[in-house]
Amino acid sequence: MLIRTGIGYDSHKLDYGVALWLGGVRIEFDKGLVGHSDGDVLIHAIVDALLGAAGLGDIGTHFPSTNPTYKGVSSRIFLTTTCQKLKDSKWQVVNVDATIVAENPTLAPFIPEIRDLIAKDMNIRPSQVNIKATTNDGMGPIGNNQGMAAYAIATLGQRS
After folding, report:
1. Terminal Cα-to-Cα distance of the chain (whole angstroms)
2. pLDDT of 44-60, one tens digit each?
3. Given this model, what pLDDT does residue 159 score?
4. Helix (H, G, I), strand (E, B) or coil at 30
5. Nearest-angstrom CA–CA distance, 150 and 143
6. What is the reported pLDDT for 153?
7. DSSP string covering 76-105, please?
8. How far apart are CA 104 and CA 134, in angstroms?
């Protein structure tokens, strides 16, 4: 079996009057992530990791912010579309591991729901998805609640 690994990263500014979406889950908070789509940094990082592992480019190539089709859409569309591209290319997701970097809100209570929804959208078992959250210890823009970021790594397999 051929095994490949990819890494993804995304960050967005936080602002008032915007809904906060992480991993496809709406989280009540006084700010949300500003982006062309829903700004879901977690899904964006996962999509980039998946595309990178498969050698299929990056999220901006497949879902450019210049395309009005993606204005305000749920990033879950990016994830399900990417997983279909992987399937069409004969890749199987072995696992995804991701970390959200955010000072606030506390994300631990949402992680099981986020993990389960991402696994469902990817058509894999929840045990194949690991989601973590950490803070930036008050340092920099993320530590000052001006933004959030996410890192992801994905491992894919393909029978030769």
Report:
1. 6
2. 999 999 999 999 999 99
3. 84
4. coil
5. 14
6. 98
7. HHHHHHHHHHHHHTT-EEEEEEEEEE-SSS
8. 10
CA 67 to chain centre: 19
Give the closest residue to 130 by CA, choosing from 141, 143, 119. 119
Domain with residue 121: its CATH number is: 3.30.1330.50
Q: What amino acid occupies position 60?
A: G
Query: By the 8 A CB rule, do 129 and 95 touch?
Result: yes
Range of the domain at 146: 2-155
Residues 50, 143, 130, 21, CA torsion sign: negative
Domain count, the chain: 1
Cβ atoms of 63 and 28 closer than 8 Å: no
